[in-house]
Design a protein that fits this description.
This protein has 367 residues and is mainly beta. Helix content is 5%, strand content 47%.
Length: 367
């Protein structure tokens, strides 16, 4: 989703040397089609989503894998890998259906000195967001921080973002898993759930609001946590959850949350649907139609797959209603806001304290 923080552009000009870029390589990308449900190839929907095709991407000579963040930008799918690389993929689609990848390009992320990020401590890039002016925000775990890039192949810029305080006291590998730009500021989520520390944070005027996003059933009973987030132009944000247990294997879900913390379940992915370690989600808008792409992180393991799947959100699905009273109440004390989905499916947002710490950027707007 393309969004605009008003002074990202001027900042990027002052911190990025445009002539210093990382080496870039063209890629030939091999794929095979993937059904939503291999045991029932005629299944074309799940929840509020219509399936528009999917691919299993071969690792190939360029080691395509480890995908941990997605963005749709300039007619391409842009991805991060968790070993400090970026990918740009030109998709092949027919009648809106994803059928292949025409071409790809890759390169390494650079640090503030123009050196390629190396090693798990420095190069574990997990989340990706883009401003309307074309600047990129990359969130990292282990060495928790956000770097800004005028181009993903360029030198990194400032990393002084107050929202990184979300992960101040968490484990090294429980970092900024999800990051997006909303019309009110940045929103970020970490790789945990159900602890005393809320797993998400949002900029709001002159404060940061910490809040907990709970996965829908049954992921809430399987240690499900957020892995990516992206926002549409109407202010609705879509959050990808995933979980893995030995007993149940992989499962995933997508929820929506608006600016007033009203939430709803979009879809829950359980066997026998196509599943793996889903960690990337992005929104693509075309007129009044909204598409979602999700991708899995194969951890560079021969036992896992890199899946890329495309969906359309049902056109008859209403936007989430406003619930400003919940936000007002949160200013004074933690509360539970619950969106009832059905008798067996309950989705909750626990609103925490408002942290009186001015965010680095507060006047972000969605295009």
């Amino acid at each position: 989703m393309t969004s605009k923080p008003a002074h990202f552009f001027a900042l990027a000009l002052s911190i990025v040397v445009a002539s210093s870029v990382s080496a870039q390589a063209k890629m030939d990308v091999s794929t095979i089609p993937v059904d939503l449900n291999a045991s029932n190839p005629d299944q074309t929907s799940v929840g509020d989503l219509t399936y528009l095709g999917g691919l299993e991407i071969a690792e190939g000579a360029n080691r395509i894998g480890g995908i941990s963040g997605l963005e749709w930008a300039d007619g391409q799918l842009v991805a991060l890998t968790d070993d400090g690389r970026w990918l740009k993929l030109t998709l092949t689609e027919e009648s809106d259906r994803l059928i292949g990848i025409a071409s790809g390009e890759t390169g390494r992320l650079l640090n503030e000195n123009g050196k390629a990020l190396e090693g798990k401590l420095e190069a574990d890039s997990e989340s990706l967001a883009r401003s309307r002016d074309g600047n990129w925000l990359v969130g990292f775990e282990r060495n928790h921080r956000i770097l800004i890039y005028s181009d993903l192949a360029a030198i990194a810029g400032a990393d002084d973002f107050a929202i990184v305080s979300l992960v101040d006291n968490v484990e090294p590998n429980k970092g900024l898993e999800a990051l997006a730009v909303t019309d009110r500021g940045l929103i970020a989520c970490g790789e945990w759930a159900g602890s005393e520390t809320p797993n998400c944070m949002r900029e709001e005027d002159d404060a940061l609001i910490a809040f907990e996003l709970t996965a829908p059933f049954p992921l809430n009973e399987r240690r499900g946590f957020p892995t990516d987030i992206d926002c549409a132009s109407n202010g609705d944000c879509y959050v990808l959850f995933r979980s893995y247990t030995k007993a149940y294997g992989n499962s995933a879900a997508i929820i929506s949350i608006n600016g007033d913390f009203q939430v709803g379940t979009i879809a829950t992915f359980l066997p026998p649907l196509a599943l793996d370690n889903f960690e990337g989600l992005t929104v693509r808008e075309d007129g009044d139609r909204t598409f979602l792409y999700i991708a899995s992180d194969n951890n560079f393991s021969p036992n896992q797959r890199t899946l890329l799947m495309k969906f359309e959100i049902g056109a008859d699905r209403p936007s989430l209603p406003a619930q400003s009273s919940a936000e007002e109440a949160a200013k004074d004390s933690p509360i539970i806001v619950t969106g009832k989905i059905d008798e067996s499916d309950e989705l909750a947002v626990r609103l925490g304290s408002r942290i009186k710490k001015k965010p680095r950027f507060t006047n972000l707007t969605v295009a």
